[in-house]
Amino acid sequence: MNKVLQQKTDWGRIIVWGLVILIWVILAASPFLFHDVRSQQVAARVCVFIVLVASYDLLIGYTGIVSFAHTMFFGLGAYGTAIALRLMGPGWDAIALGGTLGVLAAIVLAVLIGLLSLRVKAIFFAMVTLAVASVAVVIVSQFSGYTGGEDGITYKVPSLLKPATKLLVDDEGHVVRWFGTKLNGKLLAYFMVFFSSLGLYLLMLRIVRSPLGTVLKAVRENEARAEAIGYRVVVYRTLIFAISAAFAALAGIIYAVWLKYTGPETTLSFAIMIDVLLMVVIGGMGTLGGAVIGVVLLNLAQYYLRDLMQIGADLTATLPLVPDLLNPDRWLLWLGIFFILLVYFFPAGISGTIMKTETK
Question: If residue 154 lies in a helix (H) or strand (E), which one and from where to where?
Fold first, then answer.
């Protein structure tokens, strides 16, 4: 009987991780499959947010810590890189210095918050992180000379990552194309985003499969028992809080280099925090594979649902009421219905429900 259940569980894992691998393969091929600017922007955003959401899953999914300060760490990495590029110029040294300072600031702040607050109950810790994140937004607004305030800051990146850079040229001096895509700095920038995000994601997978990951799951399942057998729960929670903050800051560095713009709305917005939370819930907490699925679904809905609704409204133009219901201005209504259906049919998230269903 146990062997049958194990086989079914394995099938659930195969389905989930098969989807994850397929998504990464499509992301790797997307510059050659989709040539419009929006598709490239969405693909790069998906890569970055996979890291951001997976790092948040380390907290909420594997340790049971609810934090509303995750976008603050994301912003520290982005702003550190952006300010350095603005002050030092478009060099790799600026990215290295600014990014390093941003990551270190995220780690130090996470350790301080963790040591001071993780001893309290979950809801109080969540409120503390929300307050700290709000303070960070105010600080960014007040120090507009460095951060650009509400307008944010724009800057230049190394010339190797600019669209004008020609990676390969033909005999006539024209940029070589592969599958209709120019081999230029823009393509190199995308693959910088892709491989950096993939590497960080694989590193997080390694962490959750290490002895540290086992301890984190034990703390999540029964904090008192973990404490009783000798694990210092506060230390482990603070450690994973700092690790998660570092990964979020690294995601911020990648996003800052890709966008060539950093502002409150792209990094520190509470709306981004809500999106991150939704992505974790939709994909399935405590799997990391669910982070990939949740990021893809939410981003596709945000960027393409209106287009699909417009197509549907045009096709049903002769019918009563239907075109009004499919009006693109009502996309948030349908997005909400979509989320309700997902929660109803996948109560443990997509990946979590598939794995649990296979064990029945």
Answer: strand 153-154
